[in-house]
Amino acid sequence: MSEPLPRRAAVTGIGVVAPNGASTETFWKSTREGISVLDRVTREGCEDLPLRVAGQVRDFDPSAAIEERFLVQTDRFTHFAMAAADFALDDAQLGRPETDAAPFSVGVVTAAGSGGGEFGQRELQQLWGKGSRFVGPYQSIAWFYAASTGQISIRHGFKGPCSVVAADEAGGLDALAHAARAVRRGTDVIVAGATEAPIAPYSVVCQLGYEELSTVDDPTRAYRPFTSAACGFVPAEGGAMLVVEAEAAARERGARVQAYLAGHAATFTGASRWEESREGLAQAVRQALEEADCAPEEIDVVFADALGVPEADRAEALAIADALGAHGTRVPVTAPKTGIGRGYCAAPLMDVAAAVLAMEHGLIPPTPNVFDICHDLDLVTGRARTAEVRTALVLSRGLMGSNSALVLRHGATDAS
């Protein structure tokens, strides 16, 4: 008797709320056109802080997307997550579970690096300004990293395996790996992703301790990785959620498979040890390729971590060459995040969304604000590049030392 085919983890829905678009469609339109929306920080309380430039979500009205009873007990980062999850579920044409058993076949996995800073700051101001009786009861849960996982599962009645990943910025990719493995173990659907809302006074002050943070006040120059003018990264808010589904279940209900989560690996090399991240990132890529049964030359595009720190950029360029060999200097590399900011755990999720859409549309989006490349990379700049994208590699590193790599296959890939 032949062995049953392994359960493949398929992406059937994408939802994005980003600085360049509060919907998946507007996000992709801006991304493929290379539009930069980086601008001066305007959030109340942040105007006089050293951080001058960020990627802010400006055209998002949470009250239009989320019920009041959820709004009052959640932070902005969870508002993004709930809205993006709705977009992803709609894209996957997946409604609320209708049978007693169905809720247990759907789970939620999210990653977060900063949690609900804005909500927490407001309540702490109430505490010190007015007293403990003025602190709302939701302070105990709204700031917490797991809040988005909990609120999405409660709101939609999902009772399957739920979790939160705390693994530095690279945790965004790790959350998708957890989703893929849950699907392979038997769960039909996982709603997975990451969102962040770090543009609030308390959160920004915490970030000022990062040596890698850019404090340049010109939006066109504040975030320019892989150039001689690299001066750090600028933060961003927003994020993306995906519906990750067992391929067989998706096919059975007639869903469109947009991509496969084919391979993933993670390593750890220590906080701000950027030279050492070369070896750690390369190893993550090799292991992800091995899990995906993918040869280096099959990679059609690399979505780079693109920290914007000279030592880190050099380490990443060398890691790509180390892991992909000669193909590493020829494969197109892109970093759309230079137009929206680096959204911590959410950054690689927005890259994954862009990678899946790049496969669908046959376009590799450009790297905004970057022109004079000083590394041996085929970095896509200026305008989108037409290409047949069947396999994409997404990279992510965290300031505390996590490295992660994810291999995506096009949804039209042969199922054999």
From TrEMBL:
Q: Name one Pfam family in it.
A: Ketoacyl-synt_C
Biological processes annotated in GO: fatty acid biosynthetic process
Which keywords appear in this protein's UniProt record, sorted alphabetically? Acyltransferase, Transferase
UniProt-listed InterPro entries = Beta-ketoacyl_synthase, Ketoacyl_synth_C, Ketoacyl_synth_N, PKS_Beta-ketoAc_synthase_dom, Thiolase-like
MF terms per GO, please?
Answer: 3-oxoacyl-[acyl-carrier-protein] synthase activity
Q: Specify the Ketosynthase family 3 (KS3) domain's residue ranges.
A: 6-410
What protein family is recorded?
A: Belongs to the thiolase-like superfamily. Beta-ketoacyl-ACP synthases family.
PANTHER family, per database record = POLYKETIDE BETA-KETOACYL SYNTHASE 2-RELATED, POLYKETIDE SYNTHASE-RELATED
The protein's name is: Ketosynthase chain-length factor
